[in-house]
Write a structure and sequence with these properties.
This protein is mainly beta and 661 residues long. Helix content is 10%, strand content 50%. The chain is elongated.
Length: 661
């Protein structure tokens, strides 16, 4: 006849380091931070662009939440860098803990919140926040509930209601019990996790193997078995009870108990079970924890064969296969691949759970398990299981967002965007809103933003030609900021021709001689003379002949004068040999000066020669016969020749003075 003896031995050992208890007040229980790097806009230095984390809403009360309760999980991303666009697109892929399911209802909706970091101001209605109550398949394999285009200095948060359908293991359990989130931004992704260290406060698990034969002793004699349980109470005081029977799921009153103090996170509890020495057969047992507040948490059923010796153990080996990555964990604990072989007491039912890694999906079990659901293996012999994880197929499409900033209420921006595959789309976006396309081909996209006229004012975009890269499965953001513009008008004067160009590029006279620039921007004008012309100088808000720099803090007007190289422009240069000779022509180059000196020397020589000939002709006329006409003819000829040479010299001098060398 079967007989359980009175328990003669109960041992407790702390299995987690003790710590201080926390207050029983609902709050967010968050995991560690993750960081997405980027480059500072102005300096190009490396910086943190996005800071992110994930967590649960719960209390430190051991009675909450029990199986079936609904709570919230969340993911948060804060734009802390200095992106050139002024902000960043932030979204999340959620991977809820194993056994937790999304539980959206009218009472518990998905919440999408923007928070300004400087003062804590929050908004849920900003048009840059895109929130869905129904999850879609995220590009990183998780549940996707929306995204936001968050400005610098703002955080974006999504809160998702979930129902806990099983007892989570917390720090005592496998990674499948983690909440996992992949945060995405235009600069990359970051994987963050949070353990359920509190919400389900009573966790019962077992060692592997959990039963060990201890020999025959005592009065009366009994075959003794040591049964070990891990009780995770998370600082909640309570009592652990041993329940046993000879049929699965059928238990009598508790056989013994052990007091669990509130000074530690969890304990290893060993019960000494005595059996009639003549009994052989299966024993089914479990440990149940009842906290001081009345919450009850029960471990899974264990079993062993009583035959007067240590129960047999069998190994369970898990192999991972496929092109992807993931983890496999067991309940009772012991397997957590990487560590892919563990021994379990004979007749133990081991449940395996597969958790795909980021960018992967779980395909199927093979061997002792089939299908895709968590599988249970009864350890009556050694078993082998293969878990196949496949990489998600490459994503060649992504989301393009176009976001203007700075326009006054009621204004509409016009931004033309071109991209791969002949993409050409004009976005007309009212102020305070953004436009989005969710199925664009991955590649580089370039925009051209037009000025916006509002009443008598013109608003100017910077950058005027924004661009972005859309990665497969990612988001690219084209953004520009509008500023009140100041007009700059350029007129051209003179007989010559040429162009005037601006930097930043917006103005090119010939074709366009008036443009607007953002208030306070510095604009540089450069004049370029056409062939056969020369740039003579600026007037108006600029002077001189060099580049013109203007601070656009008011309306500006500039005139550019271009002279004809053939005829000059304005007064002709004076003859340098005449009395008081002073050229008002532009300064010649060194090469022009050398040629000019040579011309002047030749002119002086011819004048000396002509003067001598005139003198000889005068003497001859005075002594020659009257009416011969020789003198007058010679003098007339020389005078005409002298006048012709002087005029030619002046023209050549003027040409040299006006020619650029």
């Amino acid at each position: 006849m079967l007989r359980f003896t009175t328990t003669t031995f109960v041992a407790l050992a702390a299995v987690l380091a003790a710590g201080s208890a926390s207050a029983q007040q609902a709050r967010w229980l968050d995991g560690g931070f993750g960081f997405v790097p980027g480059l500072a806009c102005v300096t190009g230095n490396a910086e943190t662009e996005l800071t992110t984390f994930t967590g649960y809403w719960g209390t430190l009360d051991g009675s909450f939440p029990r199986t079936g309760d609904v709570s919230y999980i969340r993911a948060v991303g804060a734009v802390v860098g200095n992106p050139c666009s002024g902000g960043d697109a932030v979204g999340f892929d959620f991977f809820p803990p194993a056994g937790a399911s999304v539980a959206v209802s009218a009472q518990n909706p998905v919440r999408c919140i923007g928070t300004r970091l400087s003062d804590g101001f929050t908004t849920t209605t900003d048009p840059n926040i895109h929130c869905s109550q129904t999850p879609s398949n995220g590009t990183n394999g998780g549940l996707f509930f929306g995204y936001a285009v968050a400005p610098r200095g703002w955080a974006f948060e999504i809160q998702v209601p979930v129902q806990f359908n099983r007892e989570l293991k917390g720090l005592a359990g496998p990674r499948a019990d983690n909440l996992k989130v992949i945060a995405s931004s235009t600069n990359g992704t970051q994987h963050v996790e949070a353990w359920v260290t509190v919400p389900l406060r009573g966790i019962v698990n077992y060692a592997a193997p959990s039963a060990r034969y201890d020999g025959v002793y005592g009065q009366p004699l009994a075959a003794h078995y040591l049964l070990t349980s891990y009780v995770y109470n998370y600082y909640a005081a309570g009592t652990a009870y041993l329940e046993a029977g000879t049929a699965s799921g059928v238990y009598g009153p508790p056989l013994t108990s052990a007091t669990i103090p509130n000074t530690g996170n969890g304990y290893s509890v060993t019960f000494n079970l005595g059996l009639n020495i003549t009994y052989t057969g299966n024993i089914y047992w479990r440990t149940r924890l009842v906290t001081a507040t009345g919450a009850t948490f029960t471990g899974t059923e264990q079993s062993f064969t009583a035959n007067g010796q240590t129960p047999a153990t069998y190994s369970l080996t898990v192999t991972k296969n496929g092109t992807g990555s993931g983890a496999v964990t067991s309940d009772p604990q012991g397997l957590d691949c990487g560590r892919c072989t563990e021994s379990f007491t004979a007749a133990t039912r081991v449940t395996l759970t597969a958790s795909p890694g980021p960018g992967s999906q779980f395909a199927a079990w093979s061997g002792a398990c089939t299908g895709t659901a968590p599988c249970t293996v009864t350890m009556n012999a050694a078993a082998n299981v293969t878990a196949t994880f496949n990489a998600l197929p490459p994503v060649n499409i992504g989301t393009l967002e176009v976001t203007p900033f700075g326009l006054p209420a009621g204004a509409t921006s016009s931004i033309a965007v071109t991209g791969p595959g002949g993409f050409n789309h004009a976005f007309n976006i009212p102020s305070g809103t953004a436009a989005s396309l969710s199925d664009v081909v991955a590649g580089e996209y370039n925009g051209v933003a037009a000025n916006v006229v509002v009443g008598a004012d013109t608003w100017v975009p910077r950058p005027a030609t924004p661009s972005t890269a859309v990665l497969g499965g990612g988001r690219g953001v084209i953004s520009t900021t509008y500023t009140l513009g100041r007009p700059l008008m350029v007129t051209k004067a003179g007989a010559g021709t040429g162009t005037v160009a601006s930097n930043p590029a917006a103005l090119l006279c010939g074709s366009t001689c008036t443009s607007h620039f953002p208030d306070g921007e510095t604009v540089t004008l450069t004049a370029a003379a056409a062939s056969g012309s020369n740039f003579a100088g600026w007037s108006g808000d600029c002077t001189g002949t060099g580049s013109c720099q203007l601070a656009m803090n008011a309306a500006r007007s500039v005139a550019a004068t271009f002279a004809s190289a053939a005829t000059g422009d304005g007064p002709a240069p004076s003859d340098p040999m005449s009395s008081g000779g002073c050229s008002t022509a532009p300064a010649a180059s060194p090469m022009a000066a050398v040629v000019l000196l040579a011309v002047l020397a030749a002119t002086r020589a011819r004048r000396r020669e002509n003067n001598a000939r005139l003198a000889r002709a005068g003497r001859a006329a005075a002594s020659g016969p009257a009416g011969s006409g020789g003198f007058s003819s010679e003098v007339d000829l020389l005078q005409r020749q002298r006048g012709t040479e002087a005029a030619a010299g002046r023209r050549k001098t003027a040409k040299l003075l006006l020619t650029r060398w």
